[in-house]
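Could someone model benzoic acid with this protein?
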Amino acid sequence: MRCADANDDAEGETMLQLGDTAPDFEAQTTEGPIRFHEWIEGSWAVLFSHPKDFTPVCTTELGAVARLKPEFDRRGVKVIGLSVDPLPDHKAWAGDIAETQGHALNFPLIADSDRRISDLYGMIHPNASDTLTVRSVYVIGPDKTLKLSLTYPASTGRNFAEILRVIDSLQLTAEHSVATPADWRQGEDVIIVPSLGDDEARRRFPDGWKTLKPYLRIVSQPGRR
Ligand code: BEZ
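Reply:
Sure, complex below.
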């Protein structure tokens, strides 16, 4: 028997951590079968779970993501949902989403009725519910590693504008070696990552920056969209 480790859950399953490769899987979706890593295909990706089909909060969330799809596209991010019900239920539910939210599903929804993928990703938290997933969000980079994970309870709908904001921050870090301060919004000043020395910073930011402390160097947001 393996000893429990700090990143094990109550069942002794190893939990997914930032920097880990997002597990690959095959799935049936509303847009046909996929293999996850092939589907990501060098893009950024968001995988997010829903406790159950035909539930009110999930219905509003899927409508919200359909409405925001152009914003994910603009950032080169593919989105994919997951719910623990079979494909025919997803297809019937899609009609309700279009009717009540004014936005039809425009991204794939995984049918995980055997909870294989939910278990693989640790989306079921048995002390919250044995059968329903929590509201998990995974942001995955083009290198297929996990960049962000969020867990919300079933009763709280997620703020997808916040997820877009985090993606903007992650992409700025990947492209420009900057980090973003508390409550940062697009266009506001950012922080030069501590691992970048002043010599390299001068090359990257020739217009200069403001040093509040040697470890706190503020610079205008580079490469504004
Ligand atoms: C909902 O999506 O509305 C929901 C799902 C499971 C538990 C509570 C709410």
